[in-house]
Amino acid sequence: MPPLLRDASDASVVVAIARYHQDALAEAYRRHGGAVFGLARRVTGDATLAEEVVQEVFLRLWNDPERFDPGRGSLRSFLLAQTHGRAVDFLRSEGARRRREERDARTTAQAGYDIDREVWDLTVSDQIKTVLETLPADERRAIELAYFGGHSYREVALMLEQPEGTVKSRIRTGLKRLRTGLATVGIGDSGQ
Amino acid sequence: MTHDEVQELLGAYALDAVEPTEAEAVELHLRSCPRCLAEVEAHRETASWLAHGGAPAPEGVWDRIADRLEDAPAPVELARILPWESREQPASPPRRRRGGVEWVAGIAAALVLVLGGVAIAQQRQIDRLDSRTGVEQALASAMSDPRARQVSLRSPSGQPHNVKAVVLPDGTGYLIAEGRLPALDDSRTYQLWGVNDAKVVSLGVLGSRPTIVPFHASTEVRTLAITEEEQGGVVASKNEPVVAGQVTAA
User: What is the pLDDT of residue B181?
Assistant: First the structure.
């Protein structure tokens, strides 16, 4: 293993992964495994499924490291996009969604709040929560249902009883607004 | 789907919140629209902050991942493959790891010969054509030329980078590396080499993210190899090839 792997950029870590350095994959896992698992669990609502997603995402990075292009974004963003896609795939398989809906109904009835939401609240930084809270409620809700709920914009439109076009537009506008807000507190870049 | 229609979908697409048919239409559009592609990437970057999670991944998951890596071929190091080539004086009984790897040793050995002192490498920056379309047209024309020699460049360690090249009888060649090599830091570059017996000649510096690159190789070149180097390239490489492949007859 390169002695300075811990100090290497994500891009250099991926180059080392392409050369079959297992320690480099371990380093990528150390850096991003927690976020990958957190998102997978938040979306699927199931720790076992989330662990499967984590394994798939890192094995895919091992097998196809060239799919990551550092010129197009961070490794974290790349891994989380993969994670989200796989988690949504799992969720959209009928059984998983049914199990999750049953569990959500149970949780809400018993405790009145979403346990995953609570976990998420604990791990997301105050800065990001503050920025998220500056979004208009409609935009924030649409983004949350799509991203964390794994719902399509059409499903979100039905749930919020709003036109599909409006929801589509709110998701896009909300993400842009969020990006600008994050940039103002020094997270991410200035955006477009 | 029009550009405007696709644009409206980009936020939902970045969050995996579109129907499969819509996703296909967006992906088709993204291939030819860098502006929309940049927007999707920006949305994903933004969403990744929402997923912010400081908690470590659960114990045991890494062990399961590591267990499944065992089947992957181990990294090939120059020192370990060189003895296969020097059959007259094997330092140890040659151990054939995988079929199809042996020829790589020749390239590695040839690269080392260059290190021996004869700096015959020619340093030449590839003359990139301004018009990408022009390159693509020239490539398409070369690919359909029955006299063209095809080269499939593969990793000595079995990593399926699958870079291809085509070489015309006059030595004009095109390397097709688009998305097939890991992108490098800007301080690094890929470099293309032509190998013939003990001679290794630089055919050009490819940059950190090569796509389709024209080059010129003498008719004597039997093998093409790509190494990773410091930005600007080197006169003679100390590195093992990232990928290499033999120039096969037309």
Answer: 87
Q: Do B205 and B222 touch, CB atoms closer than 8 A?
A: no
**Which chain B residues are Cβ-neighbours of A143 within 8 angstroms?**
15, 50
Q: What residues pair up with B174 in beta bridges, in sequence order?
A: B166, B214
Query: Which chain B residues contact residue A42 at CB under 8 A?
Result: 51
Decide which of A102 and A154 is more confident.
A154
Tell me which of A80, A129, A151, A154 to substitute to probe the interface with B (most B C-beta atoms closer than 10 Å). Answer: A80
Give kind and range of the element (H or E) at residue B221. Answer: none
Q: Is the pLDDT of residue A33 over 80?
A: yes
Indicate the residue type of B58. P
Given a cut of 60, whether residue B87 has pLDDT beyond it is no
In chain B, % of residues over pLDDT 70: 69
| Cβ of residue B46 closer than 8 Å to a chain A Cβ | yes
For B35-67, the pLDDT digits (tens) are 999 999 999 999 988 876 667 777 789 999 998
Residue A70 to residue B185, Cβ atoms within 8 A: yes
A131/chain B closest Cα distance in angstroms: 10
Place of tokens 């076992």: A48
From B58's Cα to the closest Cα of chain A, the distance in A is: 8
Using a CB–CB cutoff of 8 Å, tell me whether B68 touches chain A: yes
Q: How large a percentage of chain A has pLDDT more than 90? A: 45
Asked whether the predicted pLDDT for residue B227 surpasses 60, the reply is yes
Q: What is the ipTM of this complex?
A: 0.86
- Give yes or no for a contact between A34 and A55, defined as CB atoms under 8 angstroms apart: no
* Dist CA A56 CA A58 (whole Å): 6
B243 touches chain A (CB under 8 A): no
The rounded distance, in Å, linking the Cα atoms of B245 and A53 is: 36
The residue that leads in pLDDT, A57 or B177, is A57
Q: Are A72 and B212 in contact (CB under 8 A)?
A: no
Angstroms from A94 CA to nearest CA on chain B: 16
Over range A41-66, report the average pLDDT.
Answer: 90
Contacts of A22 in chain B (CB under 8 A): 66, 69
In order of A115, B166, B249, the CA distances from B141 in angstroms are: 60, 11, 18
